[in-house]
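Practice problem: flavin prenyltransferase
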Amino acid sequence: MIYAVALLKALEQMGVETHVVVSKMGAYNLKHECDFSLEEVKALSSYYYQNDDLAAAIASGSFKTDGMIIVPCSMNTLAATANGISSNLIHRAADVTIKEGRKLVLVARETPLSAVHLENMLKLARLGVTIMPASPGFYHLPETIADIVDIMVGRILDQLDIDSKLYERWH
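Answer key — C-alpha cells:
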C-alpha cells in the first residue's frame, strides 16, 4: 500500500486526474501498512468510488481514460482480470481497460508465486497487460525507504508515459 499512497501523492502533485477505488482488504492493509486512512486516500483522489458501484463512470468503456493501475494487485484481482470476471468495480474497470485496448498495469503483491499465479500473469501479458512485481531496483543506491518507493512509483508512472522525475534514469 505504500506504493499506492505514494503514487496518489505524485499524481496529485502533477495535477493528474485520478479515479480511485479501494477494496475492502486494500483499506485494511492501508491502515496496517501505512497508518494512512481511507479518508486521506479520498482526499488525494479526484474521484473516489465504492468497490461495489458497478454503475460508476469507470465501469463503462465509453468513459475515456489514459489507462489503469492496480497497486497493489492481489492474486485474486489478477485471477479475476485474467478470466474476465467482473464481480466488483476494480475487476470491471480492469476488464473495460483491456477490452478498450487501454494500458493496464498490475503491480503484483505476492511472493512466492505459484504456477497458477504465473499462468494468469502470462495470460494477461499476452493480452498486453503490464505485470510489474513490486520489486524495486537497487542500482540507484537508495538510502531510504522513501527513495525505494520513489523508484518504484516512477517506474509505474513510466508505464503510462507520465514523466515524474521521481528517480534518476540510468545513463
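Discussion: The chain has a mean pLDDT of 96. Students who identified this feature from the C-alpha cells alone can consider the problem solved.
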